[in-house]
Amino acid sequence: MIVGRRKGQKKEKMMKKKAPVVKNQEFDAEVIDLTYQGNGVVKVDDFPVFVTNAVPGEKIRVGITKVTSNYAFGRVVKTIESSPNRNHEVNTAALTTGIAPLAHLKYDAQLKFKQQQIAELFSKQHIDVNVAPTIGMENPTGYRNKAQIPAREIKGQLTTGFFRRGSHRLMPIEDFYIQDPEIDKAIVIIRDILRKFHVPAYDEIHHKGVIRNIMVRRGYYSHEMMVVLVTRSKRIPGANIIIPQIKEVLPEVTSIIQNVNQDKTNVILGDVNHVLWGNKVIKDTLFDKTFAIGPNSFYQVNPQTTEILYKLAADKAELTGNETVIDAYSGIGTISLTIADKVKSVLGVEVVPGAVDDAKRNADLNNVHNVKFELGKAEEKMVAWQQDGLKPDVIFVDPPRKGLTTELIDAASAMAPSKIVYISCNPATLVRDVAQFKENGYTIKGDVQPVDQFPQTTHIESVTVLERN
Ligand SMILES: C[S@@+](CC[C@H](N)C(=O)[O-])C[C@H]1O[C@@H](n2cnc3c(N)ncnc32)[C@H](O)[C@@H]1O
């Protein structure tokens, strides 16, 4: 018999677990694991402590920095025994900020960590699959073709840098380690011009000031540079003097844009752009195709590995030239256009209007006539296309980190393509979505292939092919 608790009856007091460590406590421990965020793990009676800049296998003196009821955070006070996987030439600013949270690991160990992470997630989901070794870069620094650098006032002057991990405290930085060094130089030059003309930086607390971020994008092959000044205000004081100075000192600049973002938000770009000088896009090349890229459009940040990634995805799709293809989350049309001459037709869907405009412009620019791009939410368009009776042979999906929706997966499966090529930037959502595709009658074909699009960071890109049973 189950007896309910009667009114007034005393609640049994929940026993609250007491953490076995306290703030500022120091002790020696061995690092036994690495979290997905790149922190070392040590345990005190099974209680986990996450330690920044700690490598598995190392013996360290830990200093506790924060304690919660289920876990604690710590820092390395002293390394007692180092790991052979430690990178001793680490750029400490890149570690202290969120720029490069894996930079303390040697590159080989980073690649293994990424492979193991995907394998572990599949295994937890009871999906039996082989994850191939991560394809890495020969020179895994200075690769990013885009910077979005916050500007804040420090000691009365506009300062650029990066926020310390988990905070909005700006750390002044000039060498961003993983960015194209030409972009780093441009950021310093623009910062100094803005300082010279006393343009105020954004004050996040009082929601005042002008310059929130400086975004720079540079074409890897074209060397065309776009400078975007993201402002809280509608006006940039002294713009008529500042803009000519920027283009004079930075000859690669072909586009200077003001992006207005008046919201109290962590989202960097607003919706309104004003071309202050030059073109509204820059151009760059992938394989033999030219791409126009606007300020709000997604473009892969690592142009060197992007070519590897796209080639791999196209090869794994085993295209014959006769396929009708859907490119869901098509961005500026990079995947659609790079596979266009290997298939009958491609239909892309993308939610950012500027990116769809760029994709259409890019099809014209490259004289590609068998692609079509539609504006909309992939999850809604796919359902509509399925209801209209569309029967693609292959579907490519390349979603943002949150992955696919169940509606999209069901609609994609109901269209019964022979293959679904899943390009993922988040293994956790990849694994979740693959489980649903399996329930819908698809199985993984061959290996899951990680490609290191983001060296020195914890982000992981991979290609998985699903085949209809
Ligand atoms: C990882 S990017 C891939 C873009 C492109 N395939 C490429 O490689 O350049 C994801 C894209 O999905 C778009 N996006 C985000 N949510 C979307 C949605 N619900 N429906 C359609 N597109 C979406 C983003 O704007 C972005 O362009």
Automatic annotation (TrEMBL):
Q: Which family does it belong to?
A: Belongs to the class I-like SAM-binding methyltransferase superfamily. RNA M5U methyltransferase family.
Molecular function, one GO term = rRNA (uridine-C5-)-methyltransferase activity
**Domain TRAM per the UniProt entry, residue ranges:** 20-78
For this entry, the protein name equals 23S rRNA (Uracil-5-)-methyltransferase RumA
Q: What does the record give as the active site?
A: C425, C425 (nucleophile)
Q: Which Gene3D superfamilies match?
A: 2.40.50.1070, Nucleic acid-binding proteins (2.40.50.140), Vaccinia Virus protein VP39 (3.40.50.150)
Biological process terms in GO annotation: rRNA base methylation
Q: Which PANTHER family does this UniProt record tie to the protein? A: RNA M5U METHYLTRANSFERASE, TRNA (URACIL(54)-C(5))-METHYLTRANSFERASE
The gene for this chain is rumA
* EC top class named in words: transferase
Q: Which InterPro entries match?
A: MeTrfase_TrmA_AS, MeTrfase_TrmA_CS, NA-bd_OB-fold, SAM-dependent_MTases_sf, TRAM_dom, U5_MeTrfase_fam
Q: Which UniProt keywords apply?
A: Methyltransferase, S-adenosyl-L-methionine, Transferase
Q: Which Pfam families match?
A: TRAM, tRNA_U5-meth_tr
Asked if the record carries the keyword Flavoprotein, the reply is no
Q: Which residues bind S-adenosyl-L-methionine?
A: Q300, Y329, E350, D398
> Which NCBIfam families does the annotation name?
rumA (TIGR00479)
User: Which EC number(s) does the record attach to this protein?
Assistant: 2.1.1.-
